[in-house]
Amino acid sequence: MRYSKLKSCTIIGLNPHLIDVEVDHDKRSIIHDIDIVGLGDTAVKESKKRIKSAVRNSGYDLPTGKMVVNLAPGDLRKEGSLLDLPIALGIMRTVGIIKRDMSKVFAIGELGLDGSVKPVKGVLPILLYLKEKKMFDLKVLIPKGNENEVFMTEGLEIYSVENLIDTITFLNGDTVKEPLKPIEVDSTRREDYELDFSEVKGQLMARRAAEIAAAGMHNLLMKGPPGSGKSMIARRIPTILPPMTEKEMLEVTKIYSVVGLVDEKNPIVTRRPFRSPHHTSSAVSIIGGGNDPKPGEISLAHNGILFLDELPEFRRDVLEALRQPMEDGEVTISRARMSVTYPASFMFVGAQNPCPCGHFGDPKIQCRCTPYDIYRYNKKISGPILDRIDVFVELRSIEYEEYRSRVQSESSREIRMRVMRAWEMQKDRFRKEKVNFNSKMNSKQIRKYCGLTGEAERMFERGVRSFKLSGRGMDKILKLSRTIADLDGVERIDSTHVAEAFQFRHRPMEEILSI
């Protein structure tokens, strides 16, 4: 047998692409080598060295002659080490070690030098892709270390393999394996959090702001002196968000699978992501990218929260790069060779001090900053970024009486119940729309769903004229009012909802310094 063929896959961005692994054996060639063609990256080109050692240490001998391995289509770039196993199996079939036809075999896996099959990244999106394409006639081979990622793959014939010998004997029919049973995603599962809002003392305004932001997935910015509880509140926001749906779990797990962040024991991501990158992070690590584009923090925060602490300390180019993803819910990274799009629908939460020393406006500690220092510090966050934030809240230093109070604060469970009811109202409201939350409404939807009572209309007009709001500013107030009304369980926006929405409006630093 001089020629063999089987199927495998490569991933570009989050999208799997089916490829054919073709092997041709020229016995007459005086060159004894394996030549891999088809636009493979460095990991693919190095696979021949791993394959030679794996075959030899598994007790097999490669015959003389030249092996040509073609990864088709030839104009599609192939990345990673997941092609080791299919290339090795194609060679074994070509030289006659594997006796059976391989045209209906699909394989992925990295080979160790001892012949073991090591786990690889991106198994879940690959399996879901095969199911979507209804490729139920394939015999799918995956590493044993990835068998916990077999979610929602009914109809596929999937087998896990431990090493090269195990794989070859199975394909030759010398051993019998049972197909893996798909693992069902438990969308009703509830995660217990170690953190709880009942631990937050005082800060009623900030707690209310966090609840409103969570109810409509509005972007939130908290400003206050050091130790006032900004980070404490931000880290407890996931505890008041409703659990992820089955669809959301799979979306997030696919991203984490591609990056290689899935837990082997609990590979399905059931908690809403909470990502908190350090302020020294680069634009590539936050947004995604690189020579071979990979997801960044904003994609890892998909369906969850991206928390940027010490917001003005982040580099200007990093913050400016957030503008488009915050608006569109996705990010497209273009390179000369390819363009990939990653989902990035997250709730943005930022925290910052009011000034470089952190004590501007603090009645207890005198601020040491000049007005210019304060202005320059706050100007690090540009207008377009502030324009994409719906909820602004200022925190103050906690008083001794609040800290030592025995009064139990409202728990995360109680707040989450109200947030869940608000989400249900939005789900019912937008069932025929392309948006899921009030924060994502466009101008047409705002006019349709943000009906005001007569008193609310008059209050809205007075607020707009007083604050000199732009068109986008007016939209933000109406969307926020809609969410506050949802928390109250009413369909018509009242004056109290509009008044509270104006409370959380951003005040320019020039206005604050003039007070």
Fold blueprint:
Layout: E1 3-12, E2 15-26, E3 33-37, H1 42-45, H2 47-57, E4 66-72, H3 84-94, E5 105-107, E6 110-111, E7 117-118, H4 123-132, E8 139-143, E9 157-161, H5 164-171, H6 204-216, E10 220-223, H7 230-234, H8 246-259, E11 274-275, H9 283-287, E12 288-289, E13 294-295, H10 297-300, E14 305-308, H11 316-321, H12 323-328, E15 330-334, E16 339-343, E17 347-352, H13 371-378, H14 383-386, E18 391-394, H15 400-403, H16 412-429, H17 443-449, H18 454-467, H19 471-487, H20 495-503, H21 509-513
Parallel strand pairs: 3-4, 5-8, 8-9, 10-17, 10-18, 11-14, 14-17
Antiparallel strand pairs: 1-2, 2-4, 6-7, 12-13, 15-16
Query: What proportion of the residues form beta strands (DSSP E)?
Result: 15-25%
Overall structural class, as computed from helix and strand content, comes to alpha/beta
Q: Architecture of the largest domain, according to CATH?
A: 3-Layer(aba) Sandwich
CATH superfamily caption of the largest domain: P-loop containing nucleotide triphosphate hydrolases
CATH fold-level assignment of the largest domain: Rossmann fold
The CATH class of the largest domain is identified as Alpha Beta
Give me the number of helical elements.
21
Give me the count of strands: 18
How many separate structural domains? 3
Radius of gyration: 28 Å
